[in-house]
Design brief:
alpha+beta; 3-stranded antiparallel beta sheet
Length: about 90
């Protein structure tokens, strides 16, 4: 889910995130930018994997590896927060 103090928008083919807490902005390009709308609503890891597999010709393992590489960076940047399952 998008962090409370973060802003995300689409600009010229990429998503741009602003961490108000850190006062920095970040570009989100490639496959991960297609997950930004779902991140706004909250999305499970499995649903992110399925979405990337639907959009690209990749295996679930490849999609999961990409997500597992990028998601910690988005969390560290203050753009995304983990939400405990309901």
């Amino acid at each position: 889910m998008i962090a409370d103090d973060a802003l995300l928008t689409d600009m010229e083919g990429e998503s741009v995130g602003l961490s108000v807490l850190l006062g920095r902005y970040f570009g989100i390009r490639g496959a991960m930018r297609h997950l930004v709308p779902q991140l706004r609503e909250g999305i499970t890891h499995a649903a992110m994997v399925a979405r990337l597999c639907d959009l690209y010709d990749v295996s679930p393992q490849e999609a999961a590896a990409d997500i597992d590489r990028v998601l910690p960076e988005l969390i560290a940047a203050g753009l995304v927060k983990r939400v405990a399952p309901a």
